[in-house]
Amino acid sequence: MRAIIQRVSEASVTIDNVITGKIGRGFMILLGVEPEDTDADIDWLSSKICGLRVFGDAEGLMNESILDQDGDILLISQFTLFASTKKGNRPSFLRAAKPDVAIPLYEKFHGELSKKLQKQVQTGEFGADMKVALVNDGPVTIFIDSKNKE
Question: Of residues 14, 20, 80, 123, which has the active-site annotation?
C-alpha cells in the first residue's frame, strides 16, 4: 500500500458536480493498493498515519498527531500511485490491484482509519472520476509505502 498524506486546512471531493466528502483541518490521503497487500499492511499504515506528528503544538513545533488535534481525514483511492514510467511516456499501471482485490482492501483501510480516528473518515468513490480540491497546510506532504518499513 502506498499513501500520499497531505496536511490540509480544508479538502473536498466532488463527483458529478456533487460534493461527496469534505473536511476541515486534517489529512487528505491518496491511497494506492497493490495485489500483495494484506491486513498487516492496513494495520501498519493506518497506525503510522494516525501517529504522524506533523501538527503544531503550543510552541508551533510539529509534535502532535491528527489524534491530538482531533483532525479529520479525506481518503481517496488512487491506483496511479503504482504507475511505472520506466518505458516510454505512457505510464503502466500493472502493479496496481484490480478492483476485485483493491476495493475490499480500500474499504478495510477506510474502516480501520475510522476506528483509530474515532470518527467517520470522509471518502470519494472508488473508480469514479473525482475532482479533489485542497488547501495544503505548510505545505506538508508525506509519502509512505507499507512495503518499505525500514
Answer: 80
